[in-house]
Design brief:
The complex is a heterotrimer of chains A (about 300), B (about 375) and C (about 425). With about 375 residues, chain B is of the alpha+beta class. Helix content of chain B is about 20%, strand content about 35%. Chain B folds into 2 domains: about 5-225, P-loop containing nucleotide triphosphate hydrolases (Rossmann fold, 3-Layer(aba) Sandwich), CATH 3.40.50.300; about 230-365, OB fold (Dihydrolipoamide Acetyltransferase, E2P), CATH 2.40.50.140. Chain C is extended, with a radius of gyration of 31 Å. The chains are: A mainly alpha (about 300), B alpha+beta (about 375), C mainly alpha (about 425). At the A-C interface, helix 1, helix 2, helix 4, helix 5 and helix 6 of A face helix 1, helix 3, helix 4, helix 5 and helix 7 of C.
């Protein structure tokens, strides 16, 4: 009864044509582009990778084997663990967290400076300078770092020129290039939510605190950061999700020992052609990142509604 | 232009969940009438307006325009035009485009629309301003554009939602007269809502006084002022001194009320309560400040009140004298300014007289809050 | 006062470091586009050249990639802007109880990893096709497996969320009384939408469209999975960067950077112009007459810089046609060969000295002492005379050859002809 009333009220408020158009578009988006695909993928992850002829046949049943593969590997007896894949997973998550935290510290001062300055030309110039790198493809950005971190790249040449090292440091093998690349990739996404939130802080509060003799660290700790919390968490969430799910940077900047979990998914899809296994791994990635993000949000008492530019 | 079209509310109830916004409203508005709904904020007058214009359906009862039931008919199909409180002029369109919008939606050509808009601009004394944007106009000018826009739609009924509340005093007074003139010239039914009783009284043919969803009285402005039927109406419209007490005796259209602090007073029973008021009932007597007189003692102590002057304020066209009667009863008297320096010193005891026809008595009830 | 200037200095240092981190790689990459070395580098600098732009121009894969990126971009803009607009309007009307659930659902695609969106799109439409009974090769099946179709849908699923955020911000400033007024004056809902809401939203639609196009153009994670048989610029680039790097990629990057800078300058110049016109209208600024600069440039540093850079760019493009780095390359090659000859001589002399000293001391029973010319004793001189050395410098190690999918291709097909010309190869 209530549902009917809502619908009829909606159509009364919007007219039949517009109402159907609105419902149609939103419905198509939510159902066909968001919900159903995720369900499909979930379903896929629970099925065997069968040749087309056997699909729909007796062997096409639900199974946990794709997930078990992540933990146990190909060992059907479940005696040994799939240390390779598990290590990759854990490393991906931890590295994504590290990158996120690094970004928070890197961007906070600038976000504060921009947020609390008046809109002078200098500030606008800085903002433009910030945005320009992000109009450049992420592949090209990773490529740029590749050039710099390569063996005969600028960084090595400079270090050797300054006689700090004799031989080129293999930045790539050491994953430094990758982490620098990831940190670099999402700076803007960390910066802007923080900047927006800090800008909304009334300057008078800070001045009042100064007036009462508070030191700068205290001001930041007690006034700015609590106010900026939604922005920080919002930015951190996006950076974390994007880092954990990054594909281009690891492919271009990663050395052979620093495989990223997304690369495993990629391999399952394109090298092994096992979509089901890939789907299972993708679900694992999705669920674990969501759990982490929700936990962090719960700890810092931030709502979903605060996320958004 | 249009001959007047009548509007009727039959037993209209409007509820939002459990909250009753309008309770059993029964109103007949004559075609071509300037009708006002008067009441404090939240009394339900805006709700009634939205029900007439079609943005709301009544929970019960019917809304009829020109005798036709409007149930299920949307706002764009009703023969009404609404002037919003914040005017809602389309900010991205020029003045002439605003005015002729109702023609645009029926597919009239730009030339026709421009012509009609210019005619209306002439009528509202804004000729030549058609190409401006609303943001470039003053408050009063915007007001007139809103009216022109509504009139361009050739409505049978024009609905106005407190249109003057954002204007300053002088402009408001000027617009009151203008609105009345426009209405009489165009001849269509105006339904006007306001909380300012001065507006309601000067402009309207009839006024409905409302409180908390209930219509207390529908009458001409004159009657609402002189013969209020409830204590709320008596205290909301204009100023009134109220004396509480019990009915001592009744004779025909007059009654003697035994007041709590000012003795027995003679008053006229309000027309709607003639024959209904009983001896011993809790009652209230109302007398306007301007109805109290100083003057020769008529000797009839049932139309006399004795009080001491406490304060005196000069209002420009009159003096307000504040007195305190027995038991601390506060009384206000208004004396026209005909050149006196002042009316009385403080502390002086005065005898105030009144004509029994200027005192109204009715069953006790809720007063308008200050 | 002292602490204030300290803070200023610290701030300045921080800003310099921050922006070097941010912009440095781009500057470096742009410079490599002009270096004639086969592998993008800035030092050592071989010759200044425009040749990589030629290589870029002739690269059909990149041209194809750009073409499909644009097509997909346009499709994504159309779909995501309409979905985002609808979603934002519905958001304003949704019952308060459901509002946060609705909002979460709509925002979710932004947080979901791109790869997951790509995979789920791919999987779903394949499944859906089978569900509808479309056999292989049928029109529906082909559509549901078409890279362009899938990519537009996959990208729109999250780009629509971005669009929606833009629209919600704008919608909050809309007075719903305006729609009511329109209805009251006889407009149908469609007319009210078209004549009242849409014009109001126009600036937001413009910025959402630009945003959507850029987001679509540069998307990689999702597109990689959904693109199937086609390619976009990003997938082409990713392939190239992983398989074989040459400065033509830097050249592309340089062009994009330049276009971006120009766009930013143009936008800023336009904005300043608007602001100035407003100020003049309001009587706050005077119109300067009789200056040497055209009117749109007065008091507008952005416009001045824009014009200057455009001038420089035109000059560069003009000289590029005529300039040839051949002379320089020949010099470089000769220098390299001279260097190699010198090295060979050096090693020969050292070997001579060593064999002489060994003859005096006899074979070393304690194991060969560390030689400065090499790591392993037996290979001390071996590596220097390896066949490849006459073309390369001997002391580089080719770490890039270890790239997983690179293998022998690192300098196989792409570089063979040019290697003999350049000193650097890898």
């Amino acid at each position: 009864m209530k549902k009917k009333m809502i619908f009829s009220e909606f159509f009364r408020n919007n007219g039949v044509v517009m109402g159907s158009l609105l419902m149609g578009l939103v419905g198509f988006w939510l159902i066909f582009l968001v919900i159903l695909p995720q369900l499909s993928m979930l379903d896929y992850s629970f099925r065997f990778n069968l040749p087309p002829s056997e699909v729909g046949g007796p062997k096409d049943v639900y199974t946990l084997s794709n997930y078990q593969h992540l933990i146990y590997g190909s060992d059907k007896t479940h005696q040994t663990y799939n240390t390779v894949d598990l290590m990759v997973f854990v490393r991906t998550i931890i590295a994504a967290m590290a990158v996120t935290i690094f970004n928070i510290f890197l961007c906070y001062p600038l976000a504060y400076f921009l947020g609390q300055s008046k809109g002078s030309g200098f500030v606008r110039l800085l903002v433009v300078l910030l945005i320009i790198p992000y109009w450049i493809n992420e592949i090209l950005r990773a490529f740029a770092l590749r050039i710099i971190f390569g063996d005969s790249g600028l960084l090595n040449e400079a270090l050797m020129f300054l006689h700090l090292t004799k031989e080129p440091i293999d930045f790539i093998r050491q994953d430094i290039a990758l982490y620098a690349g990831l940190g670099y990739a999402y700076i803007l996404l960390m910066l802007f939510p923080m900047y927006n939130v800090i800008e909304s802080l009334d300057r008078n509060q800070i001045e009042a605190a100064r007036d009462m003799g508070a030191s700068w660290p205290r001001i930041h700790r007690r006034i700015v950061i609590p106010h900026a919390k939604p922005g920080i968490v919002s930015g951190a969430t996006m950076v974390f999700m994007l880092s954990a799910g990054a594909l281009a940077a690891p492919q271009i900047l990663g050395g052979p020992s620093s495989l990223w979990f997304t690369q495993l998914v990629y391999q399952w899809f394109f090298n092994s052609l096992n979509w089901h296994q890939g789907a299972a791994y993708a679900i694992v990635l999705l669920v674990s990142t969501i759990i982490i993000v929700l936990t962090v949000m719960r700890i810092f008492k931030v709502n979903m509604g605060d996320i958004g530019k | 232009m249009n001959s007047g079209v009548a509007v009727d509310l039959e037993n209209v109830w409007i509820k939002f969940g459990d909250f009753v916004a309008v309770r059993e409203a029964n109103v007949h508005i004559n075609g071509g009438e300037f009708f006002s709904f008067l009441g404090p904020s939240g009394c339900g007058k805006t709700t009634i307006l939205r029900a007439v214009s079609g943005f709301l359906e009544p929970s019960d009862g019917r809304v009829l325009i020109g005798g036709n039931d409007m149930a299920g008919i949307g706002p764009n199909k009703r023969p009404t035009a609404l002037i919003f409180q914040n005017l809602a002029l389309f900010p991205l369109m020029k003045v002439w485009e605003n005015i002729s919008f109702s023609m645009e939606v029926t597919g009239a050509s730009a030339a026709e629309r421009r012509k009609r808009a210019d005619e209306l601009l002439d009528m509202i004394a804004l000729d030549g301003q058609g190409d401006k944007l609303p943001s470039e106009l003053s408050g009063g000018q915007k007001q007139r554009v809103a009216i022109a826009r509504a009139l361009c739609a050739n409505p049978d009924v024009l609905l106005l939602d407190e249109p003057l509340s954002a204007l300053d005093l002088k402009l408001r007074q000027h617009m009151r007269t203008e609105l009345r003139e426009i209405q009489q010239r165009v001849g269509i039914t105006f339904i006007y809502i306001t909380h300012d009783q001065g507006e309601a009284l000067t402009m309207s043919d009839s006024v409905a006084v409302m409180k908390a969803g209930v219509i207390d009285q529908i009458d001409t402005g004159h009657n609402v002022y002189d013969n209020p039927s409830t204590p709320f109406v008596a205290s909301f419209v204009g100023e009134n001194n109220v004396f509480r007490g019990k009915i001592k005796s009744i004779s025909g259209e007059q009654a003697i009320i035994s007041t709590n602090r000012s003795g027995d007073l003679l008053a006229r029973v309000t027309p709607t309560q003639v024959g209904k008021l009983g001896v011993g009932d809790d009652a209230m007597m109302f007398i306007r400040p301007e109805a109290l007189e100083l003057g020769a003692d008529t000797g009839n102590d049932k139309t006399t009140i004795s009080a001491n002057v406490v304060n005196e304020e000069f209002e420009g066209n009159s003096f307000s004298v504040f007195l305190e009667g027995d038991g601390g009863k506060l009384i206000k008297m208004a004396v026209p300014n005909v050149g006196q320096d002042h009316i009385s010193d403080k502390g002086v005891n005065l005898s105030l007289h009144y004509d029994v026809n200027n005192a109204i008595v009715m069953p006790a009830g809720e007063l308008a809050s200050e | 006062m002292n602490s204030k200037s300290l803070i200023r200095i610290a701030l300045g240092v921080y800003l310099i470091i921050f922006f070097s981190y941010l912009l440095g790689p781009l500057v470096v990459m742009s410079l490599t586009a002009f270096n004639s070395s086969g592998f993008p580098s800035v030092s050592p600098w071989a010759c200044f050249t425009y040749e990589w732009f030629n290589v870029l121009w002739n690269d059909s894969a990149i041209r194809e990639g750009i073409f499909y990126s644009v097509i997909i971009g346009l499709g994504t803009v159309a779909l995501s802007v309409s979905m985002g607009l609808a979603a934002s309007i519905v958001l304003t009307q949704v019952w308060a109880k459901f509002r946060s659930t609705y909002y979460t659902l709509i925002i979710a695609p932004i947080l979901v990893p791109g790869v997951v969106l790509g995979i789920s799109t791919l999987v779903f439409w394949d499944r859906f096709g089978k569900f509808l009974g479309a056999g292989d090769g049928s029109m529906l099946s082909n559509l549901f497996h078409n890279g362009i179709f899938l990519t537009i849908l996959g990208q729109s699923s999250f780009i629509a969320s971005y669009a929606m955020l833009v629209f919600v911000a704008r919608l909050q400033r809309f007075d719903p009384g305006l729609t009511e007024a329109a209805l009251d004056l006889g407009a149908t809902h469609t007319q009210a939408f078209r004549k009242i809401l849409l014009p109001f939203m126009r600036p937001a639609i413009a910025s959402a469209s630009v945003l959507a196009f850029l987001a679509s153009f540069e998307n990689y994670n999702t597109t990689t999975f959904t693109i199937v048989d086609y390619k976009t610029l990003t997938t082409v680039l990713a392939q190239k960067v992983r398989l074989g790097i040459n400065p033509s990629i830097s050249a592309l990057a340089f062009i994009i950077i330049t276009l971006t800078v120009f766009a930013a300058l143009a936008f800023e110049a336009y904005r300043r112009n608007q602001a100035r016109q407003e100020a003049v209208k309001q009587g706050k600024a005077k119109v300067k007459s009789g200056g040497i600069l055209p009117s749109f440039m007065t008091g507008n540093p952005a416009a001045i810089v824009f014009v200057l850079l455009a001038f420089v760019a035109i000059v560069m493009i003009g000289t590029a046609q005529k300039y040839s780095p051949e002379q320089c390359k020949i010099q470089v090659r000769e220098a390299k060969q001279a260097e190699i000859q010198r090295r060979i001589k050096e090693l020969q002399e050292q070997r001579l000295i060593k064999s002489q000293s060994e003859a005096r001391q006899g074979p070393d029973i304690f194991g060969a002492p560390e030689e400065d010319t090499g790591g392993k004793p037996s290979g001390a001189f071996g590596g220097v005379f390896a066949p490849g050395n006459l073309s390369d410098d001997g002391d580089t190690q080719e770490p890039e050859a270890e790239k997983p999918s690179g293998g022998s291709g690192a300098f196989g097909g792409v570089f063979a002809p040019t290697n003999l010309d350049n000193g650097e190869g890898n």
